[in-house]
Write a structure and sequence with these properties.
The protein is α/β, with parallel strands linked by helices and about 625 residues long. The chain is built from 20 helices and eleven strands. It is a multi-pass membrane protein.
Length: about 625
């Protein structure tokens, strides 16, 4: 669970403060607009009390010109106010857009199951609220007392009656929100759950179709959807009652205020012009309350969006700027590193230490769940170390600027993901395309000729997730992406899972080419063909290093261990690696971890007279080995 940093600045409040001058300008414009709103009332009062009594056409003409000028001025003020708010909303998006996107990305890294883009929708809600009628109602609300004071100068009874009506409107709206909040919250929860599950199911349509699972999926979705619809209907029923009650109060207030003013005219306490003016002023005094009532739902949604964005930015603050470091050479050191899955407590990697020199090529093997993919994520900085330090060229990996370090890292995850774009754009990592580097990367994985056979060559769209390509094609393009440019550390997680013999040979050649150019590579694999290009071998078991050293020596030690009884554990089995530059010894950790050790089957050489020597592996050129792991 990620906890907010109390020392982190409130970035959302800081962004809004930068827009303070614009909001002050809008408030000033709103003040002038509300003063201009007195013009219709004054005009009607003068017409009834002065023009009709004096029957002076010149006075009527002058009053009409004045009120038309006031209306024109009001229209200009409203237009300028709208322009300002549109630019304020665009400015807010400019200030927060990339920051919210990076925080959303950070959350997905630390909470892998949470792939929601809700924060971006929240920013859109906040931005659109700046140009909506709800904000205008908020700016107009402080001027309602002015209208009440003017009404009170004519009649205190009408002023009290108008204020009471406004309070009733606000009370009904507040009660409506309280009654509907719980039901709408539950409906939203079921809606998000059904959408999340449906999105997951639609990504596996082939499995659903092949095994006839559509009916079960439909019933599961229908159950959640029915609960959502029922809760929404309950909230809508209550909202309909409250909404119509609000409408009744609002319309009644306008008529009753006129009736009360007429009664006062009959009693001689008010003139006919005052009656008309008071009626218009009452309507204007109720306008902010009506605006708040009509836009209450959007205002509540905006408040919720603001709170969620505030929490997100506090939980995932901006990465502090790091001082640029020299280009790395590929030296890697793990110093008592332990980590767990984001949000989890069970350690997957447990206090491991080792060193890799530039140019090392390490194959990592082990049973399922041994921590191989977690090791890959630690190597490229996707998951942080909970204890210990992962170093690249002596510097803590978390201290590197990711944007500057990225071109020096090549990574092929176990679950291959391509992005919606062309083959060239995917290989070039969606940066500025260097055609020569793109072709070189494709040639290094032996895929250049096949790309040329695609409908548009390197300009062929791969579709969302690489849907237009086969599994092997996606893997070769993702491998070329990992090798694009000049990476000094390349981490490949099951790079040959979808490759044919030709593809595996190309992979082996690419790994050897990396070593020949002094680049460090780490290959996680279950297939022996990838071992032929590695000069070192690491065996993981239950999150600890069971063996590590030169490839042939580790294989011999593991096979010898499987054939002989256990021997004492070397003291340096899981300690820090040898001094930099030294060739590490073979480390075989024979201590039993928390779970039973996997069984290792020895390589059994047959007598030459009975059986010919085994055929070498076609891709690696290595004799086959019989090292197997059981879960």
């Amino acid at each position: 669970m990620v906890s907010p940093n109390p020392s982190s600045p409130d970035e959302l409040k800081h962004a809004l403060r930068q827009l303070r001058s614009a909001f002050v300008t809008v408030a000033v414009f709103s003040g002038f607009l509300n003063l201009m709103m007195l013009a219709p009332s004054l005009y009607m009062m003068q017409v009834y009390d002065r023009v009709l009594g004096s029957r002076n056409e010149t006075t009527l003409f002058v009053l009409t010109l004045l009120v038309l000028g006031a209306y024109l001025f009001m229209a200009a003020l409203e237009t300028i106010r709208s322009w300002i708010l549109v630019r304020v909303s665009a400015r807010l998006d400019h200030l927060l857009g990339l920051r919210v996107l990076s925080a959303t990305f950070e959350r997905m890294l630390r909470q892998p199951g949470n792939s929601s883009t809700q924060p971006l929708h929240d920013l859109t809600t906040l931005r659109q609220s700046l140009t909506g009628p709800g904000l205008i109602a908020v700016f107009d609300a402080p001027w309602a007392p002015l209208y009440l004071l003017i009404i009170a100068s004519f009649s205190s009874e009408v002023a009290v009656f108008t204020m009471a009506g406004a309070l009733v409107l606000v009370a009904i709206t507040w009660l409506n929100e309280k009654l509907a909040k719980a039901a709408l919250g539950e409906a939203q929860k079921y809606s998000m759950q059904s959408q999340r599950e449906l999105s997951s199911h639609l990504q596996n349509v082939e499995v659903i179709e092949a095994m006839g699972m559509l009916g079960q999926i439909q019933r599961r979705w229908q159950k959640l959807h029915t609960q959502e619809i029922g809760l929404q209907a309950r909230a809508s029923d209550r909202a309909a009652v409250m909404g119509n009650l609000t409408k009744f109060v609002r319309i009644s207030m306008q008529s009753l205020s006129l009736g009360l003013a007429a009664l006062l005219v009959l009693e001689g306490k008010m003139t006919g012009g005052m009656m008309i003016a008071v009626s218009l002023l009452t309507s204007r005094a109720l306008a902010p309350a009506e605006g708040l009532v009509g836009n209450w739902a959007s205002l509540v949604a905006t408040g919720s969006a603001y709170q969620r964005l505030k929490e997100l930015l506090l939980l995932f603050p901006a990465r502090p700027p790091a001082m640029p470091l020299p280009a790395p050479s590929g030296q890697v050191a793990f110093e008592n590193v332990a980590t767990a899955a984001p949000g989890g407590r069970a350690a997957i990697i447990k206090q491991i230490s080792f060193q890799l020199q530039a140019g090392d090529s390490v194959a990592v093997i082990g049973a399922s769940g041994a921590g191989k993919s977690t090791l890959a994520r630690l190597l490229v900085g996707i998951w942080p170390a909970l204890s210990g330090t992962v170093r690249l060229d002596g510097a803590d990996l978390v201290r590197w600027n990711k944007q500057e370090l990225g071109p020096y890292i090549g990574y092929l995850p176990q679950d291959i993901e391509l992005f919606d774009g062309t083959v060239a754009e995917n290989i070039a990592r969606f940066g500025e395309i260097d055609p020569q580097l793109v072709v070189v990367a494709a040639q290094r994985v032996g895929f250049h000729e096949q790309i040329l056979r695609l409908p548009q060559g390197y300009d062929t769209p791969v579709g969302a997730g690489g849907a237009a390509l086969s599994g092997g094609q996606r893997q070769r393009i993702a491998l070329a992406r990992a090798l694009y440019g000049n990476p000094v550390l390349v981490v490949l997680d099951e790079p040959n899972s979808n490759l044919d013999d030709m593809g595996e040979k190309a992979l082996t050649d690419a790994i050897k080419d990396l070593s020949s150019r002094g680049r460090t590579s780490v290959i996680i694999t279950h297939r022996p063909s990838a071992l032929g290009a590695a000069n070192k071998l690491m065996v993981l078991r239950d999150g600890v290093i069971a063996a590590f050293g030169p490839r042939e020596e580790v294989l011999a030690a593991l096979n010898g261990r499987a054939m002989e009884a256990p021997a004492p554990v070397p003291a340096a089995a899981n300690s820090a690696g040898p001094p930099r530059g030294a060739v590490p010894p073979v480390l075989v950790n024979k201590q039993a971890p928390s779970a039973p050790a996997p069984a290792l089957e020895p390589v059994r050489a047959e007598p030459p007279a009975r059986k010919a020597a085994p055929e070498p592996d076609p891709a690696s050129g290595m004799p086959p080995f019989n090292l197997k792991f059981s879960d």
